[in-house]
Amino acid sequence: MATAELVLGLLSGGPAHGYDVKRGHDAWFPDSRPLAFGQVYTTLGRLERDGLVEVVDKTSGGGPDRTVYALTSKGRDHLTDWLNDPVPPAWGSADEVLRKLVAAVRTGGDAAGFLARQRANHLRRIRELRETPADDDPTSPLVREYIVAHLDADLRWLDTALDRISEQRGTRS
Amino acid sequence: MSGSQAVLELDRVEYSYRRNTALRGVSLQLKPGEVVAVTGASGCGKSTLLHCAAGILTPDAGTIQVDGQDVAALREEERARLRRTKVGIVLQFGQLVPDLPLIDNVALPLLLDGHERGEAHLSAMNWLEQVGIADDADAVPTELSGGQTQRAAVARALVTGPSVVLADEPTGSLDSQGGQELLDVLLQAARYRGAALLMVTHDNLVASSADREIRLRDGLIQHEVSL
Ligand SMILES: Nc1ncnc2c1ncn2[C@@H]1O[C@H](COP(=O)(O)OP(=O)(O)OP(=O)(O)O)[C@@H](O)[C@H]1O
Ligand SMILES: [Mg+2]
């Protein structure tokens, strides 16, 4: 699940409280369900256990919301790998692609490189589906055509996103 | 980079129209049998790239090699001959002779190359069959739909057995079924005859059949990915 990686992304700008992480997430994804506090703290706890984040400050007497977390170098490597890695094209994979893209842009990652690799992944999947030989199952072509149509729509969006990101890069530099 | 294996090689090609710079240094290589899709937004330079590769436009800078021969170094007749025999071209907008029957349109490159008329017509007929318009052999292009014209253009591009096939939106005027059929004819030229196929396309389904995608943006290669 991407929440862990998003939390790493949200910490990539510098150490923060769980509360800041939640606020940051909701600002990155204003149209999706707000991140619950409970989920933030369990996620941070798991990330700490795995050595991806560390506690850098604990205001005395404070509860969990007073704890300041920071990315470890292992956590930063994990985040970079996640941002670079295209998503396996499947049902609903566009959501995950969007999460990565937003996180890559927000954290200064290689968004264009990611989008190029994602395009390749999608195009390959379309070819596989179109090369699948016909069988006796009457519903399998229906299902395949449905998936191809959705991957095609994703690709058109990836294309627009690539252009937009290049434009933004162009105007910023 | 050794270009020994490449059948088409562009090296830092630049091209400007009077007011517009269309290519700002594009390099690419195609090996025999390779299929490459050129994608990118409208106006990014795809057709210009294809026209340079085809020798229709002469680059302002950079070199183009076909079958190891530097196109610019050839004399005009040699260049025309190379283009006629080694390169098959399917253009985005009509390239058939308007009032010439399809069979003659398709046979034309062979006739220009000195083939005997009967033999040229036989080959042309064979290709018209492969692209699914044998019944229209005697019709002239002005009587045909965009899709039929496109099929004829593919037949004409392949009739000489070229080692490089350049196609600009080859399926743009066809529905998905017809587009797939025509794409298959082009792909077979690559897969079975070893032609290098460079095709410009907006269609992701067409691009998905390529070995590589080259995406242009503003006259430059934005990315190149293996598929
Ligand atoms: N004959 C011409 N005279 C002047 N400018 C031109 C000419 N042909 C193209 N251009 C310009 O050169 C640039 C590249 O055009 P090109 O036709 O190569 O784009 P394209 O990628 O093929 O676009 P499309 O997807 O719309 O076919 C554009 O800015 C275009 O306006
Ligand atoms: Mg064009």
Automatic annotation (TrEMBL), chain A:
InterPro entries registered for this protein in UniProt: Tscrpt_reg_PadR_N, WH-like_DNA-bd_sf, WH_DNA-bd_sf
Entry keyword set: DNA-binding
MF terms (GO), sorted A to Z: DNA binding
Transcription regulator PadR N-terminal domain ranges (all copies): 7-80
Domain of life where this protein originates: Bacteria
PANTHER family, A to Z: NEGATIVE TRANSCRIPTION REGULATOR PADR, TRANSCRIPTIONAL REGULATOR YQJI
Name the record gives this protein: DNA-binding PadR family transcriptional regulator
Species per Swiss-Prot/TrEMBL record: Kribbella kalugense
Upper lineage: Bacteria, Bacillati, Actinomycetota, Actinomycetes, Propionibacteriales
TrEMBL record, chain B:
Domain ABC transporter as annotated: residue spans: 8-227
GO cellular component assignments: plasma membrane
InterPro entries in UniProt: AAA+_ATPase, ABC_transporter-like_ATP-bd, ABC_transpr_LolD-like, MacB-like_ATP-bd, P-loop_NTPase
Transmembrane segment boundaries: none
Record flagged with keyword tRNA-binding: no
Listed SMART domains: AAA
PANTHER family the UniProt entry points to: ABC TRANSPORTER RELATED, IMPORT ATP-BINDING PROTEIN
Record-level Gene Ontology MF annotations: ATP binding; ATP hydrolysis activity; transmembrane transporter activity
Keyword flag ATP-binding: yes
PROSITE patterns cross-referenced by the UniProt entry: ABC_TRANSPORTER_2
Name under which the protein is recorded: Putative ABC transport system ATP-binding protein
Keywords: ATP-binding, Nucleotide-binding, Transport
